Amino acid sequence: MISESIVPLFVAIPLAGAFLTALLKRVKGIPDTLGVMSSVFTFALSVFFILRMQAGRVFVLNVGNWGGFHEVLGRIVGIQMVVDGFTIFMLIIVNFVAFLVAVYSVNYMTRYTEKWQFHTLFLLMLAGMNGVLITGDMFNLFVFVEIASIASYALVAFGTEKRELEASFKYAVMGGVASLLILLGVIFLYSATGTLNMGDMRAILADSGQPALIYLVFGLLLTGFGLKAAMVPFHAWLPDAHPSAPAPISAMLSGVLIKALGVYAIARVFFTVFGFPHQVSIILLVLAAVSMGVGALVALRQWDMKRLLAYSSISQVGYIMLGLGIGTELGVLGALFHLFNHSMFKSLLFLDSGAVEYSTGTRDMKEMGGLARKMPVTSGSTLAGAMSLAGIPPFAGFWSKLIIIIAAVQAHHMKLAAWAALMSIVTIAYVLKVTRYAFLGEVRAAFANIREVPAFMRISLVVLALVCILGGLLLVPQVREGFLDPAVRVLIGTGGM
Amino acid sequence: MSKEHEHGMSVIVKTVTRLTVGLIFLYGMYIVLHGHITPGGGFAGGVIIALSFINLDLAFGGKVSGKVFSKGGTSLVEALGAVMFLALALMGLQYGGFFDNFLHPDGEPGDLVSAGIIPLENIAISLKVGAGLFGIFLTLIVLQKFESEKKQ
To answer: Which of A29, A38, A419, B60 lies in the 20 to 30 Å Cα band around A435?
Structure first.
């Protein structure tokens, strides 16, 4: 009973942290302390839930005690918050990355003024993401998507230079369009089913057959959440927005925001509510193939380190979508495992790019060189992240890509499997470009006196690098049974809401 | 001409504002406090309260409301409103759940003081929304002054 009643704390703790930071901004050290403490608490809470999670168990909470009306009216009144295997899997990822990013920002954000605003917006974004993950209500999902998105628009513009403002404006316009489409989709869905609760919606749609209106809803929601996930025809905002934000925020945006708002929402809505219709599977496969190709090939041409990583995110989200689009148990397992790995190595690489910028003041790889000698921790962790991204065994990224490709072969998508393997070779090429130009070679004269980054930044880098190296252990059957398998079972329909 | 007329709009606008601004403020309060039984609530009422301050600034030239509220003051009130809202929601955890209406679970339809925490939440929202909107307005004024100085 106690477990259910503390589900809202996933949203309440970061919100309280955000507003207390705004209240106590003048007290020295408070913004940093509250930023780190709030994310520690939410991470501890997600660990608590995964320990309490037995096979197939679902925690359901009726907000405001409206649960009693269920018997009277025959349908669910009010908002439900639901924690099942998939939710807890995402909560662990989001809050773990958020915690490390908060620790990293303690040192990194001293370069900016008004640090408390950063922590307030950061915690609001975290509250929004956690809200998206735990809600079981369609309209509530939209509200939390908006909270996280609006906080991220402001964070992209945090540097308030011309380029940051332009990127933020572009992001805000595209994000606004996405939110509008999602809201329209929710409205049509409500008109077709008469309920906003996801579990009820699934039951009604399964009973009544699918009304013709549902195809319009598919289109609206796929476009809306696809914009948030930056799949290829909808990706134009990402290569501007992600590099323009401060490095910790780039790590959050690329590492977890596009997954919580985009991939998670698509999986939750199309798998749990609509039962994964065949048409959606085909659309996802096509978009995934295009995303993988365009993202990887354009990344190859970039010289700005963060921009290269941003294009790489588009390509890697393509891999995740490929696994989801295949829709078999192995495909979904590969997709979720790659989602986990991508969160870890992409946050790590963005934090590394921030560390390089912190020490050298540049993001242009043509100007760098030989940093491995001056910054051993940064270069070592970059290498770990890069190898995981490139899919070199035994790093974590290798196993997830391997599973996705095997799943594609098993489902007789031979061309897609070949395409995914080919694009992973292109991935190796752009990853080598980063390590070769930034970290190997001779030290430039201008960088003769640079130093390794401060302690808090190093801690985050080392922890994430370790996860990238040891992440493959998640596939060990005993570990998989507790973490990956419950999430897979929710999506392929043998457990969950 | 008295000193009062150096800034802002014409005498007509100022007189009308002086007569109506108190009523607008009062109407905002009414919308907030009556939010649980008539249309309206914290958001709408908060906007109207903020508009009464904005009205003063527009008519009298941007210095009047500054005596009551600074930009720092608005962000303080805004954060207080949010914390109050969240605290009320969390207090429900003691009694039966998040957002549980622990003060008065079974309200009387149409009775002003029978809705438990709902009016209190409305007040918290009105603080947050009113102060937030007014803070945005003050920021825009500062920005405009900054830009016009740059042009000169």
So the answer is: A419
Give, for all 497 residues of chain A, the pLDDT tens digit. Answer: 567 788 999 999 999 999 999 898 888 888 899 999 999 999 999 999 988 877 667 888 888 777 777 777 777 888 889 998 899 999 999 999 999 999 999 999 888 888 899 999 999 999 999 999 999 999 999 999 999 999 999 999 998 889 999 999 999 999 999 999 999 999 999 998 888 999 888 888 888 877 788 899 999 999 999 999 999 889 999 999 999 999 999 999 999 999 999 999 999 999 988 888 888 999 999 999 999 999 999 999 999 999 999 999 999 999 999 999 998 999 999 999 999 999 999 999 999 999 999 988 888 888 888 888 888 999 999 999 999 999 998 899 999 999 999 999 999 999 999 999 999 999 999 999 988 888 888 888 778 888 888 999 999 999 999 999 998 899 888 888 888 888 998 888 754 44
Contact A61 B82 (CB under 8 A): no
Chain B nearest-CA distance from A181, in A, is 25
Chain A residues within an 8 Å CB radius of B127: none
- Please say if the pLDDT value at position B6 is more than 70: no
DSSP A224-286: HHHHHHT-GGG-TTHHHHHHHS-HHHHHHIIIIIIIIIIIIHHHIIIIIIT---HHHHHHHHH
Closest CA to A80 of A96, A97, A67: A67
* Cα dihedral A125→A127→A133→A134 (10° resolution): -170
- CA-based nearest residue in chain B for residue A81: B98
A 17-46 residues with CB below 8 A of B?
19-20, 22-23
Angle at A392 between CA A389 and CA A396, to 5 degrees: 60
**No. of H helices and E strands in chain A?**
23, 2
CB contact under 8 A, B98 and A16: no
In a domain, A496, yes or no: no
| Structural domain of A130 | 2-491
Looking at the structure of chain A, the number of domains it has is 1
Across the interface, whether the CB atoms of B98 and A20 are under 8 A apart is answered no
| Domain encompassing residue B18 | 3-151
DSSP state of A136: -
DSSP state of A453: P
CA distance A23 to chain B (A): 6
Which residue among B76, B89, B90 sits closest to A23, beta carbon to beta carbon?
B76
**pTM tops 0.90:** yes
Is residue A497 assigned to a domain?
Answer: no
| C-beta atoms of A63 and B86 within 8 A | no
Q: Which two tokens stand for residue A44?
A: 């501890």
Closest CA–CA distance from residue B26 to any residue of chain A (Å): 28
A16 touches chain B (CB under 8 A): yes
CA distance A309 to B112: 58
Q: Is A108 part of a structural domain of the chain?
A: yes
Q: Contact A296/A315 with Cβ under 8 angstroms?
A: yes
Residue A218 inside a domain? The answer is yes
Please identify among residues 50-69 of chain A the ones whose CB lies closer than 8 Å to any CB of chain B. 61-65
Residue A62: strand pairing partners:
A80
What is the count of structural domains for chain B? 1
Residues in A closer than 8 angstroms to B97, CB to CB, are 5, 61-65
B83–A16 CB contact, under 8 Å: yes
Q: What residues of chain B have any CB closer than 8 angstroms to a CB in chain A? A: 75-76, 78-80, 82-83, 86, 89-90, 92-93, 96-101
